[in-house]
Amino acid sequence: MIFEEKTIILKDGRTAILKSPCVEDAEKLLNYIKKSCSETDFLARYPEEWTTTIGQEEAWVNRLRSAPDTLGITCYVDGEDAGNCEISFRGDMKVSHRATIANAILKDYWNLGIGSAMFEELVSAAQNRGTEIMELEFIEGNDRARHLYEKFGFRVVCERPNMFKLKDGTYRSEFYMQKYL
């Protein structure tokens, strides 16, 4: 699915562009996700686990843009990737009422309204699709993300203890949230 370009004004007055990623941005996207994973323990991978080649990333972007059940949105600030999000709609009959979302924002762009702008678009896409339940997970301690999700009506429905083992040997729980539309 393709998200048509939308301009937003950030809390600091800068302009940002939300749009589906383009194949020409594959290298930028890889650099963005590696940097994002290096800035926080709240994402599912460490930066060194991203071994994807530029060619593989290009293929992923092409699949994302042509997939009828997935919508990806990237936020660009001054031509650079600041964040991205994705919603995956379920296709099988028993779960077709559900959609899963994921997002990440670079630290330099936290608290500027990007997460809220992207979530507004994800909720709108889900409503337009006839989705009944949106789902996401977050890692214990990510209070900033939890606040954003709760602001959009997501509620914790279960905790899965010790789902992530950090490099220092400690464990963090994963929380599963849902929003009913």
Automatic annotation (TrEMBL):
<dbReference type="GO" id="GO:0016747">
    <property type="term" value="F:acyltransferase activity, transferring groups other than amino-acyl groups"/>
</dbReference>
<dbReference type="InterPro" id="IPR000182">
    <property type="entry name" value="GNAT_dom"/>
</dbReference>
<feature type="domain" description="N-acetyltransferase">
    <location>
        <begin position="32"/>
        <end position="181"/>
    </location>
</feature>
<dbReference type="InterPro" id="IPR050680">
    <property type="entry name" value="YpeA/RimI_acetyltransf"/>
</dbReference>
<keyword id="KW-0808">Transferase</keyword>
<protein>
    <submittedName>
        <fullName>GNAT family N-acetyltransferase</fullName>
    </submittedName>
</protein>
<keyword id="KW-0012">Acyltransferase</keyword>
<dbReference type="InterPro" id="IPR016181">
    <property type="entry name" value="Acyl_CoA_acyltransferase"/>
</dbReference>
<dbReference type="Pfam" id="PF00583">
    <property type="entry name" value="Acetyltransf_1"/>
</dbReference>
